[in-house]
Structures are given as C-alpha cells and as structure tokens.
Predict the structure.
Amino acid sequence: MNADAIRSMTDSEFRALRDFVYQHVGILMTEQKRELLTARLVRRVRTLGLDRFGAYLDVVERHRSERDEMIDRIVTNETKFFREPSQFDYLEKAIIPRWRADADARHRNRHVRVWSAGCSMGQEPYSIAMILLSELPGWTVEVVATDISNRVLRQASEAVWPIDKATEIPRQHLEKYMLRGVRTQEGTMRAGEALRAVVRFKRLNLHETPPPDLGSFDLIFCRNVLIYFDGKSRRVAVDRLLSHLRDDGHFFLGHSESLLNSGHPLRPVSPSVYTWKGRLHA
Ligand SMILES: C[S@@+](CC[C@H](N)C(=O)[O-])C[C@H]1O[C@@H](n2cnc3c(N)ncnc32)[C@H](O)[C@@H]1O
C-alpha cells in the first residue's frame, strides 16, 4: 500500500490509538469518533510517508514532538469571545461587586487571579481580562491561560483574530481593548497592550498534575474541555482544578456540563457556576 492510498484504520489500530489518547490526554474517543480521528490524522500520516496508522502510532510513541503534533490535530478548539454570556453577567453583577465591597472593608486585597484552563485560541481569557480591567481599575489582574495544544497557544499569544470575530465583543470593550489591523494586517484585530499584559499563556495538560507553583485562584474557568473526558478522568481533573481554587473562589464549567451528583463539595450559584458549599454569599 502506498501512503496516498491510506484511508481507514483497522480495529486494532483504532483501539491502540484510542488507548494512547486516553492515557496521555484523558479524552475518550468512542467508536463514534473513529471517523473523526481518522479524518484528523490521515493527512499527517500521509505527509510522513507512512502507509498504516499502526506505523504512525510507533512514531508517536517514540517521539515526544510527534505526540504533541498529534494532540494538536485531535483536540477540538471551538471557542468564541464572551461565550455563554450569562456567566460573564454573573461575574460582573454578582462576584465583582462583592470583591469591591470586601476590598473596601479591607477583607481582601485588590489582586485577582484567574485560571482559564483549556483556553483554546485565547477568546476566553481575553474576554475575562476585558471585564476585570474595565470593572476593577487600579487592581492587579492576572489571568493564567493554559491548554494542551501548542498550536492554539501560539495563536493565543499572538492575540490576532479575523476582524469578523469583533461582533462577538461588546462595543465598549472592543473600542477600549482591541486594535484594528491596518495595511498588511488588514482584516484582522489584535488585543491591545493593556490586555496582553495581564494574560499569560502556559502549556498544561489537565490529565496530569499541575506544577505546584501554579498557585491559587479566585476564579477557575474550565469550560467545554472536560466534556471530552470520561467520568473517571473528569473527576480526577476536577479534583486537581479545585485544589487551586481559593476558599471564596468560583468555578465555571460550560453550559452543558454539571457537577451535580459528582460528590464535589460545591454548590451552583448560577448556571454552571459553582462555589464551595458552606459559603454564605454568592
Ligand atoms: C472546545 S475548546 C474550549 C475553549 C474554551 N474553554 C471555551 O469554552 O470556549 C477545548 C480546549 O481544551 C483543550 N484540551 C483538551 N484536552 C485537554 C487536556 N487534557 N489538557 C488541557 N487542555 C485540553 C483543547 O486543546 C481545546 O483548546
């Protein structure tokens, strides 16, 4: 068989690739995802001049760089600015006013730390940063944005998007924090200096223990990431995330996700937004 002829994977190739992905990334590729997995990898297998997916897996197992390359291809990166607006509303109208009141009463410092876990191409962490900068002038804002995919992290740190994404951003933030590309950058927009200064990107696999120096956070966003995990790897990942959530912190999942019946000591305060049980205030 020549490399161009390769189209499908055998049962055993699929099982071996599925197990490898599950072991290293936590994502469970069910039988229904087989075609998707094939479609996402076939071009790479051909580019490497290989004639079987089995041979590709051998390369992936031997070379860390090819493992990363494979991960870049299999993850789903769909995202948008201000996705799930009710959560941003809750941040602006319920959480931030409490922080301000606590800071006025000297019960908290004026420093906010946020983790956007599974940040994709940056739309989520930059949306959070726009709200925090505009609502908390004079405060120190730190947004740590992590993802497993080097490709999306590169794009996110460049902070450049097609101009049509501008419609996703409320006008007042767009005017204040985004720059419209001119000349060679025509048709794009870029996050301005103030915004870029508060968002820091880092590669981090949520299927592994995070480095201890990551620190603790007031808010942790992990939206539309763990939906691809199975129950067991999801539970372990949530435990790890929560070990970095402050006593008065909030945890954000995607709208289709829930912690109900998960056994975690959190309670919902708004759709898919949680805080520790026992805390009096939202
Ligand atoms: C669908 S996007 C969600 C982006 C954003 N959180 C949102 O809700 O718009 C999922 C992101 O999770 C990342 N991801 C998948 N598995 C991961 C893992 N094991 N560790 C860290 N990030 C992972 C993917 O690379 C992708 O960028």
Summary: The pocket of S-adenosylmethionine is lined by residues 25-27, 75-79, 83, 118, 120, 124, 147-149, 152, 205-207, 223-225, 254 (CB under 6 Å). The chain has two domains: 3-74, 85-276. Residues 68 and 149 are 7 Å apart (CA to CA). The mean pLDDT is 95.
